[in-house]
Structures are given as C-alpha cells and as structure tokens.
Amino acid sequence: xxxGHIKLxxxxxxxxxxxxxxxxxxxxxxRQVTQExxxxxxxxxxxxxxxxxxxxxxxxxxxxxRSGIAAIAIKSEAPSGLADQQFAKPATRAGDLARGYATGLxxxxxxxxxxxxxxxxxxxxxxxxxxxxxxxxxxxRRRKDYTLDYVNPGTYGAGLHAIVFLCFIPLVYFVAPMxxxxxxxxxxxxxxxxVMNWTIQNMQRVSV
Length: 208
Prior knowledge:
By secondary structure, this protein is an all-alpha fold. It has one domain (about 1-200). The protein is built from seven helices and no strands. It has helices at about 1-25, 25-45, 45-65, 70-75, 90-145, 155-175, 185-200. Helix 2 packs parallel to helix 5 and helix 6 (about 155-175) packs antiparallel against helix 7 (about 185-200). The longest helix is centred in the middle third of the chain and has 60 residues, at about 90-145. It is elongated and about 70 Å long. The two termini are about 25 Å apart.
C-alpha cells in the first residue's frame, strides 16, 4: 500500500512541477512567485521574511545562476541563416516557447527552494508538538490495554489512510502552482499530529 502511495504522490508532484510551465505563461508564474514573496513578508514580518528570502536568493544564485544552469536553460536561439527560409518563423516560435517554458520552470524552482526553507524553519517548533501527540497516544493506548477498553478497527484503518495522505501533502505544497502562505505548514502539522494520536490510540491488539 505504502509503495503505491509513494509512486502516486511522487508522480503527481513531478507532473505539477514540470507541466505547469506548459500551461501558464512564464510572466504569470513569475507574478505568482512575487505574490508569494509578499505573503512571506505579510505573514512572518519584514525582518523574518527578508531572512528567508535572502537565503532562498543566495541558494538560487549559487546553485542555479552562477553554475550556468539558468543560462543554459533559457538559451534557445533560432539557428543562424534561417531568416529568409520558410522555417524561420516556426523555429523562432519554437525558441520562444522553449525559453518561456525554461523561465517558468526556473520560477517554479525558486518557489520550491523558498518553500523548503520555510518548512525547515518550522520543524523545530512543530516536531515537539508531533512528539507530544505520539507520546500521549502511546500512554492512552497502554491504558486501554490495562482496562481492556475497546479499540476501534475502523478508526485505526481510517487513521492510517489519513496519515499517509497528510504525510504526502507537503510534496504538493512544495510544487503548488499558485501563491501559498507560509502559515500553511503549521496548519498541516496540527491535523497530522491529531490524526497520529487518534490512530495510535486505536492500534489493534496483536494476538500471540
């Protein structure tokens, strides 16, 4: 089951990341990324927002721009000598489309870098919350063993499926083809912790 979910979500993530630049003009994607940068300032404050944006800019500049990847991606010129030939316009059009796709892809990549850095910054605050949910659930589960309380197999099964769903939602967040608030990260962790608690409390007894 888990292997099938991994393939499904990784495939969906890849499709969103690589297909979006085909469906949206590069200018639109760049505007959306700019809007997301403004969300970072609005929701985290100017000082904290600048810190994350500066880190994303430096990483993007170092790994994509200075390495030459960006220049290679957007360089798509029509072959010389075609100006007077019948294939000149199609070749130029193809070059424009290729440059637009590459520019949109690079904008998506920048948004991905920014979102990963934001998610990583939330982890020190949110992992203890998840740990507390799991610890509480384990203690409640032990109490049910001692008191022979009912553990619901339907609740346990539904919880497992919900956990798988919530674990892979961040992948979609990283490549979402729209501006996303940085506050979405903790909003994803809260239901994840509660569902884990709910599921562990109803883990089925194993007969030996």
